[in-house]
Amino acid sequence: MPLTGRPQPEAERLTGDSVSRPASEPNRRRFLQALVGTVAAEFLIPSRASRAAAPTNPQAPTMTLHKPPSAASNFRWPQPIGSPVLDSLRPVIEHSRDVKTNLPKLIEVAQWMAYEELPVPQYSIPFAADSGNASQAIDFTLVAVTIDFAFTDFQNHTKFQVDYAGAHYSDSDALFACMKRALDEGTPILDGAYLATITRAQLAHAFRGNIELPLLDERVEMLHQAGQILQAKYGGRYHNFINDCSPRCYDRGNGIVERLTAEIPRFHDSSPYDGHEIKIDKLAQLGVWIMYCNFRKSGAFQLDDTEKLTAFADYIVPAALRVMNILEYSPALDHAIKTYQLIPRDSTQEVEIRAHTLYATALLREEINKIRPPDMQTIIPQIDARLWLPYHTTFWPHHLTRTIMY
Fold first, then answer.
1. DSSP H or E segment with residue 399
2. Dmax over Cα atoms in the chain, in whole Å?
3. Fewer Cβ within 10 Å of end Cβ, the chain: N or C?
4. Is residue 384 part of a domain?
5. Which domain range does residue 309 map to?
6. Closest C-alpha among 90, 131, 85 to residue 312
7. How far apart are CA 214 and CA 158, in angstroms?
8. Would 266 be classed as within a structural domain?
C-alpha cells in the first residue's frame, strides 16, 4: 500500500504559459484523467482513485545487477534547467550500485507518452483562491504539506482513513479532511502560535481516524518547528512568508523553494552520497507546485520559473518507472522491495532510487518535448503527474522507508 502523501488532483492542460480546456466530471478521488480538463477544487469533496490509462501489455520489469560505469562520459545528462536539485545528482547517477536508468526504454516510452495530453493538475483542497479567502487557502496548503508524509502503518500496512461530512477519505485526502474538520470545530490549525505549542493529544484529536496517524510524534515536532518560525518572523501565517519571497523557485536565495528549505528545517530534504550532498527537496517543490496549479489563474499565487521544478521523489513515481522498465534494480534491491523490507533513510539504495527518479523524469520530459509541437511543450512536474496518478494504486510493490520527507 502506498505510504506517500499527495493531495488528489484534477487536471487541465498547459499550453506554453497558458492553460486551456477546462471542464470535466469529478471522480471519487479527483484523479486526473489524461484526456479531461479542469474542475475547480473549491470545497472538500468525496474522492477515490480512478486509474489513468497505462501502456497496453507492459513488459514485466527486468532485474539486472548493475556495476558502476567505467567513465562518466557514458552518461547522457539532461539539459540544464536552473535546478540545484537536478544539478546535484551527478555523483549518484555516475556511481550507482543498485539502480540504473535504462535510456533506450525511456526513449521507447516517450514515443507513445508524447501523444498523451499530459495536463497540469488541479489539486482538490478545501479552499480555492477564487472562494474569497486566498490567504487561508495558501495557509491551508502549506500547513498540510508540512506534515504530508507516511499515511500507512509500517507494521500492519493499514491506511489512515476518516469519515467526514458524509464522505470517506484515505491518505492525504484524509489529512485534508481532518484539517477542515478541525477548522470547523474552531481549532486554529493554520495559526503558527497554536502550531508552535500543539500537544500530541491535541494533534491526535484533530487527526482522529481509523488508526492513529502514523509518525504522529514526528508530525508534532514538524509543526512545532514551523509554527515557531512563522510566529517569530511572519505573523504566524504561511501566506506572509510567501508574500515576503520572490515569485520564483530560485532567485539568489530569495526564491520560495530556496527559502522554505533554508528557513524551515523540515523542508530541507537532502542526503549524503559518497561525500556529496544530494538535494531532493520534495515537499518544498510540491507545495510550490500545488499553489501554482490551484491559485495562479486568480492571481493569488505567482510563480515565474516553473520550468525549474523537478519531479517529486517519493514512493510511487519510482514504482511507475520500474514497471515501465525505465528504472532497473539490482537483484538485492529488487528482493528487498518485493519482500517489504525497510530501505533505510539516506542509505545508498534509497538515495539512488530517488536520484534516478529525478534524473529519469528529466530525460523523459526532454524526449517527449522532442516530439511535441512548440505550443505543447511540457515541464517535469507534468511528467511526474502522469506517472504518479495511474500508479498510485498499483499492486506493484514500492520501496519502504521510514522518513518525514515523503
1. none
2. 61
3. N
4. yes
5. 9-391
6. 85
7. 10
8. yes
Query: DSSP string covering 60-82, please?
Result: PPPB------S-GGGS--PPP-S
Task: Let me know if residue 382 belongs to a domain.
Answer: yes
Query: Cell digits for 200?
Result: 500530541
Full pLDDT tens readout for the chain, 406 residues: 556 567 666 545 444 343 333 333 333 333 333 333 332 233 223 332 333 333 334 455 654 444 444 444 468 999 999 999 999 999 999 999 999 999 999 999 999 999 999 999 888 776 554 556 889 999 999 999 999 998 888 888 788 999 998 999 988 889 989 999 999 999 999 999 999 999 999 999 999 999 999 999 999 999 999 999 999 999 999 999 999 999 999 999 999 999 999 999 999 999 999 999 999 999 999 999 999 998 888 888 999 999 999 999 999 999 999 999 999 999 999 999 999 899 999 999 999 999 999 999 999 999 999 999 999 999 999 999 999 888 877 889 999 999 999 9
Instruction: Tell me the torsion sign for CA atoms 255, 311, 41, 137.
Output: negative
Q: Give the chain's domain count.
A: 1
List all residues 6 or more positions away from 183 whose beta carbon is below 8 Å from its beta carbon.
Answer: 189, 190
